[in-house]
């Protein structure tokens, strides 16, 4: 049972997620077996099924953990005591940085989302919608107060920004000409320029 305990201070669920993320990124979700995941994590199948009910649960958690992080950070930005323009810019840049920090997770999810059962897919969509609605509320706040233009509906502005975020995994490279902070700043500035009255 030693294999199911912490190894080098890393708890079993995190080891399983790290192994699954690496293997899903390298081979694809459908070409990765449960046996390969547990071997890479150094645990037993029993340990995997203790923490995750299935390989599909691992896939869902790969994305859900990033979304939870982003939701917590968005809630903090949205609730900050700062002008709405600053709060939106901070939130818009942060979602870029946290996506870049978790590029494998984002790529895996968008490539493999169709493998989720309808129920799990619905759960993920509900959580993602909650994030988008909080982000949209910042835009609407700025539009109501006259800081942002109302020429473009807030929903379309949200889709515009997140369309860019969702494609980061297809082109961003850590060794490329722009740092994650530079990309985040440029995309956040583009968003704010589009909202200027």
From TrEMBL:
The keyword DNA-binding applies. Residues 10-70 form the HTH tetR-type domain. Coiled coil: none annotated. InterPro entries: DNA-bd_HTH_TetR-type_CS, Homeodomain-like_sf, HTH-type_TetR-like_transc_reg, HTH_TetR, KstR2_TetR_C, Tet_transcr_reg_TetR-rel_C_sf. Residues 33-52 bind DNA. It comes from the Bacteria. Keywords: DNA-binding, Repressor, Transcription, Transcription regulation. This is TetR/AcrR family transcriptional regulator.
């Amino acid at each position: 049972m030693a294999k199911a305990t912490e190894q080098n201070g890393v708890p079993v669920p995190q080891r399983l997620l790290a192994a699954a993320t690496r293997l899903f990124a390298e081979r694809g979700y459908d070409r990765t077996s449960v046996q390969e995941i547990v071997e890479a994590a150094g645990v037993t199948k029993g340990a995997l099924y203790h923490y995750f009910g299935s390989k599909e649960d691992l896939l869902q958690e790969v994305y859900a953990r990033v979304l939870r992080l982003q939701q917590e950070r968005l809630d903090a930005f949205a609730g900050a005591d700062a002008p709405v323009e600053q709060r939106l810019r901070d939130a818009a840049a942060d979602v870029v940085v946290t996506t870049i920090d978790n590029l494998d997770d984002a790529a895996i999810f968008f490539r493999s989302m169709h493998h989720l059962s309808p129920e799990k897919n619905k759960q993920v969509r509900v959580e993602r919608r909650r994030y988008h609605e909080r982000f949209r509320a910042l835009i609407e706040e700025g539009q109501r107060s006259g800081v942002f233009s109302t020429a473009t509906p807030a929903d379309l502005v949200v889709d515009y920004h997140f369309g860019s975020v969702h494609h980061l995994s297809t082109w961003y490279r850590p060794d490329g000409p722009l740092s994650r902070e530079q990309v985040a700043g440029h995309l956040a500035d583009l968003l704010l320029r589009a909202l200027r009255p």
